[in-house]
């Protein structure tokens, strides 16, 4: 189980070149102990605490975690840390490059190029070990 000292070191390593954010939204977990709070203060970050037992106070994280669970992890059996890392990396690539988002007018965060019909027939490309897919034109 991670300690407050380990978490403090992680936050320092996350922002090594004076690129720390202005604010850090966090919950009331014990992992954010004295060592963590001191490091965050030394980095010039202002902590904003969410109320206990209130996940709605960080809706972006809750939405992302829900998407990962519903669209990916609920459908696979994870066989270990390396396997989980591979699945999540693959899902992240799918999420950014192929999954459509209503808020982006059914585009994805990384816009896709429009493929001309002369490029070839439409083929299915499997993503996330076959859990999802997208379509592309491939030259014959």
Plain-language structure description:
It contains four helices and four strands; from the N terminus they run H-E-H-E-H-H-E-E. It has about 140 residues and is of the alpha+beta class. The chain has two domains: about 50 residues, no CATH class; about 80 residues, no CATH class. A two-stranded parallel ribbon has the order 1-2. Strands 3-4 form a two-stranded antiparallel sheet. Helix 1 runs parallel beside helix 2. The longest helix is centred in the middle third of the chain and has 17 residues. The model has no long low-confidence stretch (mean pLDDT about 85).
For the secondary structure, the number of strands is 4
Beginning-to-end CA distance, first to last residue: 53 Å
Output the number of helix runs. 4
Strand content is: 5-15%
Class by SSE composition:
alpha+beta
- The helix content, as a percent range, equals 25-40%
Largest sheet: 2 strands, parallel
Number of domains: 2
